[in-house]
Amino acid sequence: xxxxxxxxxxxxxxxxxxxxxxxxxxxxxxxxxxxxxxxxxxxxxxxxxxxxxxxxxxxxxxxxxxxxxxxxxxxxxxxxxxxxxxxxxxxxxxxxxxxxxxxxxx
Length: 106
Known about the structure:
There is one protein chain. This protein is mainly α. It has helices at residues 4-9, 23-29, 34-38, 46-58, 60-67, 70-74, 79-82, 85-88, and strands at residues 99-100, 103-104. It has a two-stranded antiparallel ribbon. Helix 4 (46-58) packs across helix 5 (60-67).
């Protein structure tokens, strides 16, 4: 499993799986996804799909880092549900089959 806390602290918040963006900021940008990340039956808002698609394009490892972070846990995000958002959004360039901790992107 990725040590997200350590990754987020490296280089004073930069140089992590999210590049120069601190994991906290990347997580905050995904706030439109909260309901969809908690409930597999919830509709995924277009704003969420847009943010997730942009994050996958810019820094695909960042999405995994955010999903496995303590921030996600505090927000009540279910990583097993959240990992399905790229597929639920029909994002074509999603890294399907890639591992994210104990989860695999569908």
